[in-house]
Amino acid sequence: MQVMKWSVIALAVAAGTSQMAVASSQSESNGFIEDSSFNIFNRALYFNRDFRNAAPGAQSYVEETGLGIRLLFESGFTQGTVGVGVDAHSLSSIKLDSGRGRHSTDQFGTTGDGRGDDTQTEVGGAIKFRISDTVLKYGNQFTASPVFSTDDSRILPEVATGTLLTSNEIEGLELTAGRFTAMSSQTGSSRDDINGKAAGLTSANIIGASYSFTDNFSAAIHRSDVEDYFKKTYVNLNYNLPLAEEQALNFDFNAYKTTGDGDELYGEVDNKIWSLAAAYSLSAHTFTVAHQRSSGDAGYAYGVDGGGTIWLANSVQMRDFNGKDEKSWQARYDLDMASFGVPGLSFMARYVRGTGIDNGPGSDLDRWERNIEAKYVVQDGAAKDLSFRVRQATYRADEGFEGGKLDEVRLIVEYPLSIL
Question: Hey, which family's this protein in (predicted)?
Answer without folding.
Answer: Belongs to the outer membrane porin (Opr) (TC 1.B.25) family.
